[in-house]
Design brief:
By secondary structure, this protein is of the alpha+beta class. The chain has five helices and nine strands; from the N terminus they run H-H-H-H-E-H-E-E-E-E-E-E-E-E. Strands 2-1-3-4-9-5-6-7-8 form a nine-stranded mixed beta sheet. A hairpin with a 6-residue loop joins strand 7 and strand 8. The longest helix is centred in the first third of the chain and has 14 residues.
Length: 213
């Protein structure tokens, strides 16, 4: 499983690779210059604060860095060198997710019906990948992208998630707030607003770790 230190080290190494400070990297990506400040990596309560998946995606795009290269940087290696700790990640299609195949009622992988892909550094026994067969939230997720999902990860405000409704609809969004009664998402994609999903209509909600394009 990725650690807090690995992710922040990866960001620092990415900045150094481009002769930038962490602040300069944030500015290049169009983020607030303080986004990656060391003072923001730990909360006032002493708990680790993780960078959002959106901010990581923006710096990778701004520096033309692939997710694989970023993983290598997190591990302390040089992009292009062999990646350690890789494993076979279970992979299914978006259509199977919509039909309820491969996953149980809580969104965890079930036995059977999976293909496998090589993937580095995600040491989560429940993690799996969804291969998109169509654009679902352009420009964020397009046909051919591999979306890596962790159904067991804690979900916080600002996290990108995939939600499956009991009726079968699958949504990709960002968590605005979550209560026992409902979850409110900002749907990804052009001209999409907030959507409140009542708890009794939600089959499961899982955090998106990475997207490989």
């Amino acid at each position: 499983m990725l650690t807090h230190k690995q992710v922040w080290d990866g960001i620092d190494r990415l900045a150094a690779r481009h002769n930038l400070s962490a602040s300069g990297l944030a500015k290049r990506a169009g983020l607030d210059p303080t986004t990656f400040n060391k003072s923001k990596r730990i909360t006032k309560q002493g708990k680790p604060r993780w960078p959002s998946t959106e901010s990581v995606a923006k710096v990778l795009d701004a520096t033309s860095t692939s997710m694989r290269e970023f993983v290598e940087l997190m591990q302390g290696g040089t992009p292009g060198s062999p990646v350690g700790h890789g494993f076979r990640l279970r992979c299914t299609g978006l259509g199977e997710v919509e039909r309820g195949a491969c996953l149980d009622a809580a969104g965890f992988p079930q036995a059977g019906g999976w293909e496998e892909i090589d993937y580095p550094a995600i040491d989560d026994e429940h993690a799996y990948a969804i291969e998109l067969d169509r654009d679902v939230a352009p420009p964020f997720y397009r046909s051919g992208d591999i979306v890596v999902v962790s159904p067991g990860s804690s979900i916080r405000r600002g996290d990108r998630v995939i939600a499956r409704l009991r009726a079968g609809q699958v949504l990709f969004g960002v968590v605005v707030r979550r209560t026992a009664q409902r979850v409110v998402l900002t749907e990804l994609g052009a001209d999409k607003g907030e959507e409140a999903i009542e708890a009794d209509k939600l089959a499961w909600l899982a955090r998106i770790l990475w997207v490989s394009q």
